[in-house]
Amino acid sequence: MLSAWRKQKRSGRKPPHYIIVKSPKGEKAIALNPAVALAAGSALLVFSVGYFAATGYLLMRDDMLAKTALQEAELRRSYEDEITKLRGRIETLNSKQQMAQHRASLRLESLESIRNHQSTLEQRQQKLLEVLALAQDTGLQIASFTTNPKPLPKPSLAQRQVISVAENGLPDSVGGETVPLENPGHLLGLRPTSTTIPAPGPKTSPPETNPKGLGDLSALEWEIRGQIDQGKAVLASVLAFAQRDLEALKSVADTLEVDVPTAEKVAMGGPYEPLPLSDFNTYVIKTEQALSLRHRLLTDLQALPLAAPLGQAPITSDFGARMDPFLNKPAMHTGVDFKALRGTPIKAPGSGKVTFAGYRGGYGKSVEITHDNGLTTRFAHMHKLHVKKGDRISTGDVLGEVGNTGRSTGPHLHYETRINDTPRDPMRFIRAGRKLTAILGRS
Question: Which co-factors does it depend on (predicted)?
Fold first, then answer.
């Protein structure tokens, strides 16, 4: 093979390419075709490039994947942060909306409560005025009631600013203390007495703070509640004064020996049980009952002959046993003698009907009046008579004049009070009348 190559070279022809392989057994030449060699070289080059490219890719893939994963993670975190911010904004908006709805709900509830309290106030004020009118009609003197609360206009969101908002967006807190009625009696024009009247009940005061979002709406509600409580206190005062008068009038009736029907209906005594101020209707009922009973009892007492026929004239002879001024012997004096000048007017101690007017033995010129409940009064030793039998007279009417007719030692009035024609001490009735006058005067 080698000799052939040399021969071709000497001949001038371009010999083929050979690869000479040496080994212990000798040399071996392998002929190479240029085309084949070029193809093989190209293949080797392509393989090498591919090999190194694949090797480089495999070496750099992890770094690329790690970098890509990092970029994706950063992008994901960015998206998540944006989503979190958006959720926070949504929650903030929802929270503000819920707070606004809650405040609106509170305002509506408070407004409804105010309207209910306003309606209650108007109804109770009307009832209170009726009770006060009844108190005046039945004689419980009320000189003035200048602090009578006038009904407030019904609240309306369109008529007033319901809530004021500060710069920080939070509602201003508006409120104030309601003034408790320490002594409601002075509102009725009642003069103070030594009578102790129990306090009408616990004071009502607004809460320490107003609920957020209510503002002056809450203050208005407490203002209305304060007026309601003031009305309760005034009503409690009227009831207390009526019950005080009832007890005093019954004590007057108990001193007399006359049956006063209304006095038997006045139940007094027992343990003290304060009436809850919250029960306004019960207060109204009890007050109306007390005023009505007071009026009937007062009417019954005023129908009795309780006035003194000669006012403050001095007494010269009391009722009961005495020495007869003519016989100088013990005798029963069936009346009371009042000293007065001849011609002094004699006034009727109570209303009634004249059943006798004329001359009657030792009584001289006299008048007899028949009253209710079996009561009669006699007026003796008169100088002149100004009434006649059958006349209807009223308390204070002039019956005649003081004189010295009949069995008399000088000008004076002999005054008798009889129950079912039995003589009774006239001073018991006169003292009861003075006590009644004092009761009416303090009212």
Answer: Zn(2+)
